[in-house]
Amino acid sequence: MADTLALIGVGLIGGSLARALRHHGLVERIIGVGRQAENLVHAKELGVIDTWTHDIAAAVHDADVVCVAVPMKSYPAIFTTMAPALQEHTIVFDVGSTKAYAVDMAHQCLPYPERFVPAHPIAGTEASGVEASFSSLFENHLCVLTPEEHTHADALNKVEKYWLAAGSHLMRMDARQHDAFLAGVSHLPHVAAFALVYAIHQGEHETHDPFAFAAGGFRDFTRIASSSPEMWRDIALCNRKALLDKMEDFQMTLSDIATALKNDDGDRLLQVFTEAKNVRENWIHKHGGSL
Amino acid sequence: MADTLALIGVGLIGGSLARALRHHGLVERIIGVGRQAENLVHAKELGVIDTWTHDIAAAVHDADVVCVAVPMKSYPAIFTTMAPALQEHTIVFDVGSTKAYAVDMAHQCLPYPERFVPAHPIAGTEASGVEASFSSLFENHLCVLTPEEHTHADALNKVEKYWLAAGSHLMRMDARQHDAFLAGVSHLPHVAAFALVYAIHQGEHETHDPFAFAAGGFRDFTRIASSSPEMWRDIALCNRKALLDKMEDFQMTLSDIATALKNDDGDRLLQVFTEAKNVRENWIHKHGGSL
Question: Model-level pTM?
Fold first, then answer.
């Protein structure tokens, strides 16, 4: 009774989910789909997929479940290509980091949007590609599902079963609300890390490499700047309204700090820094153990 | 022939250096100076110091070498208090993160500024306090010294010997140049991490705690927001001109990204993100192994 899974995009997230589902016996056969034969051959050698094809329509036609794990700007093309080949009972879910866009694309491009389940496993590393995948990636991490009123209960239950098997904690919420929260705690930090490295690199440095003076704080702050640029370009564009709001909040706080610096206002700096430290330490106390 | 060291400020940095110098036999006796008796008692129990006092003048009068390891805005008060008690042969050095300010304060407040050696060990953790100190903190980390023309060679040699014993790699450079580099790769990331946590926390969240959706990327990006607010207030104020310059560069890059988002300009986003990733990965390749 285990499923045939069509996995569109065999990278870190798709590969890790495939490993977890196979490990827990929920899938019998995994058909990998991607553009690069080399990556698919490698995924098969690693035992992540059983077979592969470049033909999305053929892959989804044979599948009980389709998992879409590609950069989000590819959704329209992927969904449109798979649409004519999807059977009515086939369940489609995605793993993208912004959910309103995923829902909109499913409505626009899929024949049975009520069988599309928007999912976002909040887990990952800065590494990319199937060789970085591992079956425990999602254990004890949150997976947010943003079903709509019309989402079919069977489809939702199936996808929730998958993520539970992978070890995730489930949460259901509204897609736009999800996008606003993630814009703050995930998308903004990524943009800020990319921006900081870029800005420092652009500066003038005639005599020394400024990065020679960087240490552990810089390493950790910028870890996410080693993430996939294509993936984060797409996330940023697909959630641009919410992200622009959070970027504005962030820029206002930076300007507030700059004003305090210009005014030699140590009290204001201390207030901002202390509140930030307290908020972060409460968070670590509550959630840090499961990260 | 080992030295008597007066350690003004027995925290993470001062405590770690004391442990390293004792471990390598360079100091015979360490006099801890601080405001909180509890902390000093604890430091003595841990074997970091041999004896302690609240009396800065008494401590430095008996010392061959004085290490100043306190938040930087305390330099004027500390230097002024120690000035009358310093003997001409006594060497003074600091460990502060901004060096032009340290040099200026030494000139203004110390009787023998040519025996003051400005040093900055580029190492640390987000933890504070003597209980977080450990003797290998500085091993394989850079320690930048910013002596001036008039700095006495004996003083410079002694302080360099200390840091070499602690396992540091030494570099000599101009104080203002040091400050400009550190503003970019250290002070700006700290300010940005504090600012981001503060900005997200200030946002409206009626239904959920936004930090419930944060994961490993957020944890690492914000690790330095758990640093000492007092220490970072002082560093920011003491290096405010260089820091404001880097904050402006950073804000310009953020605005550039915001414009690209508004214009749906994926190419520009990809360009910035890709350059940042490449710069960071070159840095990790060159320096990551020693962090």
Answer: 0.91
Question: What is the distance in angstroms between the Cα of A58 and the nearest Cα belonging to chain B?
Answer: 31
Of A196, A213, A216, the CB nearest to B181: A213
Structure tokens at A290: 């499961």
Reported confidence tier of residue B204, pLDDT bands at 50, 70, 90: low
Sheet of strand B91-94: strand arrangement: B51-53, B27-33, B3-8, B65-68, B91-94, B116-121, B142-145, B169-172
In chain B, the percentage of residues whose pLDDT exceeds 90 is 90
B:219-278 residues touching chain A, CB 8 A cutoff: 219-227, 229-230, 232-234, 236-237, 240, 243-244, 246-255, 257-258, 261-262, 264, 266, 269-270, 272-277
pLDDT at A112: 96
What ipTM was predicted for this assembly? 0.90
Do residues A171 and A147 make contact, with C-beta atoms less than 8 angstroms apart?
A: no
- Can you tell me the distance from the alpha carbon of B17 to that of B22, in angstroms, rounded to the nearest whole number? 8
**What was the pLDDT predicted at B260?**
98
CB of B53 within 8 A of CB of B26? Answer: no
A283–B211: do the CB atoms touch at under 8 Å?
yes
* Mutation site, B254, B267, B278, interface A, largest A CB count within 10 A: B254
Q: Is the dihedral of CA A157, A159, A160, A166 positive or negative?
A: positive
- B1 in A contact zone (CB under 8 Å): no
Return the closest-CA partner of residue A197 out of B24, B282, B90: B282
pLDDT digits (tens, 9 = 90+) for A49-65: 999 999 999 999 989 99
pLDDT over 70 percentage in chain A: 97
Asked if the Cβ–Cβ distance from A220 to B221 is below 8 Å, we say: yes
* Cβ pair A51, A63 in contact under 8 A: no
pLDDT tens digit string along B220-275?
A: 999 999 999 999 999 999 999 999 999 999 999 999 999 999 999 999 999 999 99
CB contact under 8 A, B211 and A291: no
Any residues with CB less than 8 A from the CB of A144 and at least 6 apart, and which? A99, A119, A120, A122, A171, A172, A173, A178, B213
Nearest residue on chain A to B190, judged by CA atoms?
A217
